[in-house]
Amino acid sequence: MIFQLNIDETLERLLRQEDTDGDTKITIEDDGPKAFDISNTEGQNYRVTGTYHLSNLLQELVLAKTSGQSIAEIPISHIEEKPVSRISRMIRDYYWNGLTRTMDEKGIEALLSDTKNETLAGESTLKVYVPYQDKLALEYYAALESKLEIEVVKLPEKITPEYVRSINDAPGILSLKLSEKNQTITGEPFVVPGGRFNEMYGWDSYFEAIGLLLDEKTDLALGMANNFQYEIEHYGKILNANRSYYLTRTQPPFYSSLISEIYDKTRDKDWLKSHLKTAIKEYETVWMVQGKRLTANGLNRYLAEGIGQPPEAEEGHFHHEMHEHAQNANMDLATYESLYRTGEIENEALDAYFVHDRSVRESGHDTSYRLEGICADLIVVELNAFLYKYETDFAHLIKTEFEDSFEALGKIYSSEYWLEKAKTRRQKVDELLWDDAKGMYFDFNFKTGERTDFVSATALMPLWSGMCSGEQAKRLVATAIPLLKEKGGIASCNRESRGTISDLRPQKQWDYPNGWAPHQMMIWKGLKHYGFEKELQEVLYRWLYMITKNAVDYNGTIPEKYDVVVATHKVFAEYGNVGTEFEYITKEGFGWMNASYQYGISLLGENHLNSLNALTEPDKLFD
Q1: Which residue among 231, 366, 486, 511 is the active-site one?
Q2: What CATH architecture is 105-303+378-454?
Q3: pTM for the full predicted model
Q4: Mean pLDDT value across the chain
Q5: Residue 560 catalytic?
């Protein structure tokens, strides 16, 4: 049955009756009658009841209005759509489109309204930083200066930390790959996380790509891989994101996984050959330089190479750290912070603090008490699991696709070379990071020579990369899952590791009680790889239940992160929760959350899918 409805009249009446708190959404916090009558031109009547169905009606009306209609033709099947089907359909058909960007004229126009430009630069003109050797981009953006409020800045041939600090007060966007075809220049597409994030992020892009490939949007995943290649070739690394102040900072490495999974779809061997060369270059030049991200122990750490405090942090973010130093210098806090930022004041203690702070941001886990104040001194479990995956991916691709011989960096590589690298890394991880008594992996502080005792979801990442032995996997799952499992899935850490929270020790967003999509997705793949199907189905269901229940109760909300202990999107630590602020309907969701949903339901058993649609509480299904 289809109902033809006057959009403006129906919207006005629906919101007046049901949106009692005036936030342009219909949620369980509204106290309207939860029943709304509609009729069509044939005299048929239908009563829409309950928060979920009413919010579906609101969304369908807004979608029709957005497409320029004044009369909406709304199928009752869309109002009554089962939650799992609706959430998945909205992600596939709408949210990916809402998150897609390019760095060509159309994309630059959209970036002009980004609030980060105004907040940091104090001006409306957007600076576009372009690599020294990219002639096509320099000419293209220069031609746009007369049309858009942009200023093109040519980067120096050698980008140093000193140079990056010198432009911190003049931040801008970094160019990504442009292609010219039939005399038309277009930007490679990419997917942004959502909300206030309008640039291409490092590890976000890989997890988004998992969802994109499942939803047959290979062109978007391909575009992000091509942009990664551009970043490595022109900026020397896969960037935290393509903003000028991220030029000294990379992100957790997933490039080999991304190109492998795209190749499984495209089977384009020339493309794979080009990207495999770039991936090996990234591995060797970003991660395996002794004394930087490679430690004397032969394992890896995060080490962002900038100078001073990160300029992207909000006003006042570092006041707690600066306060005592300002007092000792007999200065007010604002003056001291300004002089330190420009290098007019030197402070070795602050310098050391910010090495760790920037490295936390490079890790993607910004922020967590696991890494606070020690990040650059830690050989972390997850990074070494990720690089083990690089080594085994390289071995597999070279053996299966290139007849066991591959040239890169002026050297011929065999699969045996990479398997030996992986074997050595695994042995060192077992020696330094594996605690046999506890049956878990822990980060290792190479300055103190001791393992930490912080129980983190990252301890499970060796499952994802295949680095565990079968016995280690069995013990790890038996030990770590019970410590981290909550109502809504796996928490970032356990409560004991996080410690006591107070005004002097505030909540960190990557700690208990919060849970994050990339952790869940890697844990799922790891559990599946090692055959832990029962555990997989439970943690899958818990995460998907939480997303589904919150979307049903809160007008389709799919945010950046969740409190998995209470199973709610109401997370207020540090930066709040991106993806919760919208009018009428979310047009984006949040990138890796969308992907986790699509990936999760692809793994969930049919009986559990039925329970999920019925919103059966997890504790009623699992002992």
Answers
A1: 366
A2: Alpha/alpha barrel (1.50)
A3: 0.96
A4: 95
A5: yes
